[in-house]
Structure formats: structure tokens, C-alpha cells
Design a protein that fits this description.
The chain is α/β, with parallel strands linked by helices. The chain is built from four helices and ten strands.
């Protein structure tokens, strides 16, 4: 870790529409320099389907009234909505000495370790990024790296209406079952899950500490 830019900054955005946050994290990535702090943005989104760069139209079954946004991350289609904790790691990977594959594994491990606190046994799945509990997906993951810096991130299901997942093939997998923390006996409040997850994220990313940063972002 570069001590000149430590500690990690955590930005809590509350509930926001998807597109303004996407634009803001893209702008932060494009405008940052070698001294810009690494940040984690925590947000809960209004209902939206997002389709990754490699997304195939056949995986969008019946969106109905939920908007669909084509985005510049990896992966296929997924759903964001109230009751889901979304974390966007805005990291200078070159400065941290972390490759993309390793970043994926570290983010997955942070979620696995968090779930273990509530005696929920979770695991990775070969060839299908994210975190699973008994074959049911509980965390989806899609990243983009530009100029050596990461954005987009992970979506961790806490206590949400899971029915919109029936309108898609989640992450491009037909019949993939989805679960969430509250169903498995963990907490149903996003702040509680965020408080449990943050230490594991910081540890996995090599930060000894983090600090809260203001949410006064140009989310236009």
C-alpha cells in the first residue's frame, strides 16, 4: 500500500439511481492521478437491470417496467434493487500491485469471510465469478479496468425482492437460483452487512484502515 494515499476512503451514497452513479465513478476513474485516494463506494440502487459488454439479448427475458441499462463492465445481465448492497471499488491496481483476476478473488473472499460470521458457508464457482451458497448465487461481480484503475464492482443480496431475477437469466445462466443474507439467517439491514463487510474488504485489499469520505459527488 502506498502510505501517501492511505487510508482507504469509504463513500456511503445511500439509495441512488444507477446511471448517475455509473457516470460519476467513470469520471472519477478518468480524472484521477497517481495521488488520488482509493475509494469504496457503497450504494443501494433503485430497480434496474444492467447488461455487461458481452451481454446477450436472449438472457433478458421479460424486463417489464424495470429499466435496462447497457454498461461498460464485464459479465452478462444482472439486477440491482432495494435491499442489495452494491460496492464499487475505485482502486489504482498498479499502485496496489493487484491484477484483475486477483482483485476478483479478493472481493469474493471478503464476501465469503463476511458470510462466515453468520455461519453461512459460501464458495466460489469455477468459471462463474461471484459467491454462492449451496449453488445459489448471493453476490454478483462485474468489473472494468481503465488506465490501470478499477470501477464497477459487486452486488451483495441482503434483504430484497428476488422476483425480478425471474425476468432474466442471471449472469447469463439459465435457471440459476438466487439467495440473500436475510433468508440464510444473517442480518436484513444493509448498514449491518456493510459494517461486517468493510473490514474484510480492507484486509483483502491491503489497507490497515479506512476513513469515511463525503458523499458530495457530482452525480448528474
Amino acid at each position: 500500500m502506498n502510505e501517501a494515499v492511505a487510508p482507504l476512503q469509504v463513500v456511503e451514497l445511500g439509495r441512488r439511481e444507477y446511471v448517475p452513479v455509473w457516470r460519476a465513478m467513470s469520471r472519477y476513474t478518468d480524472e484521477r492521478d497517481g495521488q488520488s485516494p482509493d475509494q469504496l463506494w457503497l450504494v443501494e440502487h433503485d430497480p434496474v437491470f444492467t447488461q455487461g459488454q458481452a451481454g446477450k439479448a436472449e438472457h433478458l427475458l421479460a424486463p417489464g417496467e424495470i429499466p435496462v441499462v447497457q454498461v461498460d463492465r464485464g459479465g452478462q445481465i444482472t439486477y440491482h434493487g432495494p435491499g442489495q448492497l452494491v460496492v464499487y471499488p475505485l482502486l489504482d491496481l498498479r499502485r496496489l500491485g493487484i491484477g484483475v483476476r486477483e482483485l476478483v478473488q479478493r472481493l469474493e473472499q471478503a464476501v465469503i469471510d463476511t458470510l462466515a460470521q453468520w455461519n453461512i458457508v459460501a464458495a466460489r464457482r469455477q468459471g462463474a465469478p461471484g459467491v454462492y451458497v449451496e449453488g445459489h448465487k448471493i453476490m454478483a461481480l462485474g468489473l472494468r479496468v481503465r488506465r490501470g484503475c478499477s470501477f464497477h464492482g459487486l452486488a451483495f443480496n441482503v434483504a430484497m425482492d428476488l422476483s425480478p431475477y425471474q425476468r432474466i437469466n442471471p449472469c447469463g445462466f439459465t435457471g440459476l437460483q438466487i439467495t440473500q443474507v436475510s433468508t440464510l439467517g444473517g442480518p436484513g439491514e444493509l448498514p449491518a452487512v456493510a459494517a461486517a463487510l468493510l473490514p474484510h474488504l480492507a484486509e483483502q485489499l491491503g489497507f490497515a484502515e479506512w476513513t469515511a469520505a463525503g458523499a458530495a459527488l457530482p452525480l448528474d
